[in-house]
Amino acid sequence: MANGTSIEKKWYVVDATDLVLGRMSTEVARRLTGKHKPTYTPHEDNGDFIIIINAEKIVLTGNKLKNKKYYNHSGYIGGMRVRTAETMIKDYPEEMVYRSIWGMIPHNRLGRKQVKKLFIYKGSEHKHEAQNPIKLEIKSKGV
User: Fold this and answer.
1) Cα separation, 39 vs 33, whole angstroms
2) What percent of the residues of the chain are helix, what percent strand, and what percent coil, each to the nearest 5?
3) Phi, psi of 71 (to 5 degrees)
């Protein structure tokens, strides 16, 4: 079993251009939780750091651009806000990718710790060059 001192964490950069949102999110969630490593331990955070660039160039298949909806509620009467995936990609691509990945990570203290290792950027520039991230190839090209 791995413990906090024996875990080696790497940095990866994923170019989201023409990648299918769900397929990319599952691979990123696997890497954030550390399930791809042979030393995976369910109660330890042994996942890697992930940087996602070009979030606005992600692809959704089928009619999801028009039909998929994202809901927020302020807690007040009439405080429901509904946005389609088309508006999310245009205006808030980072939030859309984040919500997709966060939905695949356990919703507990460990999951909150793991999701903090995720960095999402709209364009192709990121501020983590000092960590020398490795390019991660995900084979899920869009249709």
Assistant:
1) 12
2) 35, 20, 45
3) -110, 140
